[in-house]
Amino acid sequence: MLTIRPDQVEAFRQHHLQKFEDDMVEHLKKFAPNHWKVIGEQTGRQVIQLGIEEARKYGLTNRGPVRFYIEMMFMLGSYFDTDPQYPWVSEVLRDPQNMDQMVRADRLYESMTKYWSDVAGPKNQHVFSALRRLSQARADDYVTAGVPLEDCFLAGLKSIYPQKCAYLGERPLRTLLKKTFELAGKYGFTSNQDMALMTALAFFLGHGCTNDPLHSWIARRLADKRLANPAERAAELQAKAMLYLKHTLEGSEEPV
Q1: Which single residue of 78, 82, 130, 181 could bond 161 by disulfide (Cβ 3.0 to 4.6 Å)?
Q2: pTM (2 d.p.)
Q3: Nearest CA to 68 among 79, 52, 45?
Q4: Over the stretch 202-254, which tens digit does the pLDDT of each residue have?
């Protein structure tokens, strides 16, 4: 009788993981060509590996569900599963009634399709309109003396990206703003402009953007020891964010 040793089972598993990773590399080059060009294959493989591990936490191990999970990372940010902007994601992934991973993946796909259709619009026109408004926005335009900053920025987000804000509702947005203000404080950012910068990054790139391999340019600027103080780091991050925004609107997403 044939006996398969544990090391042979592991070798077989690793072979199929490597094959899946290689296939995802080719898929993502077509799915997100501009972003893939920016991050490069080495970082891209790190994102794929992260996605495999993150999907496994929710019992997603089959090829199709894991592939879709990684696609969502590219669309919403690597840590979309815990992002307060997307409570519907957690509801699906953590629903104890959806024990079968294919059912869970189908529900996630349906929810994502509805979200993206309403928020992005035909040919992503809502996204690009919002980004164009963001490129012209200034923090002081939205800050009113005597009004809490959270209320000011909430109104600002609604004016910049009304479709997304209407879909999300006020509670998730306020939760995101509170978390973003805490994150800004962690890096010593206190001015209205710096707080607005962190809010925009989290709103458009995901709440985990400061630690997201998809947007490693953010972490590099925040950790740059050559920048002596928070004000200098914020100014550098602002400059690079505006360059990133410019290239995104031009459809190139070139490295920054």
Answers
A1: 130
A2: 0.89
A3: 52
A4: 999 999 999 999 999 999 999 988 888 999 999 999 999 999 998 888 874 44
- Evaluate whether residue 6 is within a structural domain: no
Separation of alpha carbons 247 and 91, rounded Å: 35
Q: Which residue in 62, 50, 53 sits closest to 108, CA to CA?
A: 62
Categorise residue 192: left if φ over 0, alpha if ψ from -120 to 50, beta otherwise: alpha
80, 30: one domain: yes
Q: Report CA-CA distances (Å) from 238 to 7, 12, 77, 194, 245.
A: 50, 47, 19, 8, 10
**In angstroms, what CA-CA distances link 212 with 49, 74, 79?**
13, 11, 8
Angle at 160 between CA 117 and CA 241, to 5 degrees: 100
Separation of alpha carbons 54 and 79, rounded Å: 9
Q: Give yes or no: residues 127 and 244 share one domain.
A: yes
Q: Does 175 lie in the same domain as 131? A: yes
DSSP 23-77: HHHHHHHHHSHHHHHHHHHHHHHHHHHHHHHHHHHTT--SHHHHHHHHHHHHHH-
Q: Which pLDDT band holds residue 256 (cuts at 50, 70, 90)?
A: very low
Same domain, 141 and 58: no
Write the DSSP symbol of residue 126.
Answer: H
**Where a domain ends, among 120, 147, 164?**
120
